[in-house]
Amino acid sequence: MTQTPDVRSSATSSTASNYRDIVSRIKAQEQRFGRDAGSVLLLAVSKTHGADKVREAYAAGARQFGENYVQEALDKIALLAQPPDALTDISWHFIGPIQSNKTRDIAGAFDWVHSVDRLKIAQRLNDQRPADLPALNICVQVNLSNEDSKSGVALSEAAALCASIATLPRLQLRGLMAIPAPCRDHDQQRAAFQPLAALFAQLQQQYPTMDTLSIGMSDDFDAAIAEGSTMIRIGTAIFGARG
Ligand SMILES: *Cc1c(COP(=O)(O)O)cnc(C)c1O
């Protein structure tokens, strides 16, 4: 028999070693900015990447995964739940724009939703959350004047949306999420996050369940950690460029 190159194991090492690299960069940034060790969680954004890549990141310790597209995510979640190699301790986070005809699928398959930006969607998720599952963890997505993005509630309206969500019994209000306009400068990145961090601190006084500031992606997570991020969402720097 001729030996074929083992593509699978080289792919394993790059996803897994990228994941470990980001974990150690998070540790370094926690120290640099005086954050508690372990206070920043890493969400591996696996959108457009297959179940095999999820397994590779899982092998390196990843347990939190983020997805943007409902049908792609449902297929992947089902595949990874199949015996004999079922991965049973993954938390799935929905982080993409939400159409109202997709809320039932999201409420049934995910543990978290980071992209709630209107009450109608929150109400549907609440009504459709299956009774045998715990309350669905929710972050309100805020639009930090990112002209490119139509997603997110205005900063000035975020507190009111949080107040409504806090009354819905099948949802657990956990925090705020934002995607600022891309920019390269560290200080400008920090400045963009600041109004959100201030609102987060204020809302935490009101809602004891609020513990998650979901900010920071591949190009701005240092700045996000400096501004108090508790969950960074990394795709490209773990899985490589999306095709
Ligand atoms: C795709 C995506 C990410 C990951 O972005 P990268 O730049 O690939 O790290 C994070 N958050 C959201 C909401 C996304 O849609």
UniProtKB/TrEMBL annotation:
Pfam families: Ala_racemase_N (PF01168)
Listed InterPro entries: Ala_racemase_N (IPR001608), PLP-binding_barrel (IPR029066), PyrdxlP_homeostasis (IPR011078)
Keyword hit for Ribonucleoprotein: no
CDD domains linked to this entry: PLPDE_III_Yggs_like
Keywords: Pyridoxal phosphate
Domain Alanine racemase N-terminal: 31-242
Listed GO MF terms: pyridoxal phosphate binding
PANTHER family reported for this sequence: PROLINE SYNTHETASE CO-TRANSCRIBED BACTERIAL HOMOLOG PROTEIN (PTHR10146), PYRIDOXAL PHOSPHATE HOMEOSTASIS PROTEIN (PTHR10146:SF14)
NCBIfam families from the UniProt entry: YggS family pyridoxal phosphate-dependent enzyme (TIGR00044)
Name of protein: Alanine racemase N-terminal domain-containing protein
